């Protein structure tokens, strides 16, 4: 029996290029370069580690990435395939635009269902562009699956997920039955680089499967901005304080005395 792992992968705008659409109060992605969300890459790496562990035990496993977004996300899914994922699907429809975490988790869960019997769904703990952490438990609810959040380590044993969560002052080890959904803590591993030959194959031969709202049998009126329960009411730019700089010259002893004097005046 093949262990089937799905990874929910988010593509986010680079932080330094983020702009907001003041009319819709949503992120404007059109003019920003995009990248795989860092926490999502950690989730991909953990999925591949579980696949490698299964292979070492003489068992079959597959990793399939699932992402929701516009067509240009394909290039980023090619990177995930080049890292070692067996396949990827893209959930793309104008009806998905502007979604908050509620319809987003619903669409991703529907995408996972299209894959058939999935044992484990991995997600990044939270994305760098919204940082809500609400989508992973939302997917679990839609799939009626067990859930473990903020996982730092994991292994599959006897039909269960054994996961380690980092807690203040220590670690917590939990076990939940499969199928399950787990979010992966940001920075807990070093995502592998895409394989060059596999990258070429992904770009030239691999074909991405794309599903729209109709394919997922989801009503458009309950998706995207229209199906969202939260909205941004206002945007306000926050000006940071002026930073006052001053050169301190002289030999090291003179500089140290001057710096100590300035600090003493501020205390």
From TrEMBL:
Residues 24-210 form the Electron transfer flavoprotein alpha/beta-subunit N-terminal domain. It holds the Pfam family ETF. GO terms for molecular function: electron transfer activity. CDD domains: ETF_beta (cd01714). InterPro entries: ETF_a/b_N, ETF_b, ETF_beta_N, Rossmann-like_a/b/a_fold. This is Electron transfer flavoprotein beta subunit. It comes from Halalkaliarchaeum desulfuricum. The lineage of its organism: Archaea, Methanobacteriati, Methanobacteriota, Stenosarchaea group, Halobacteria.
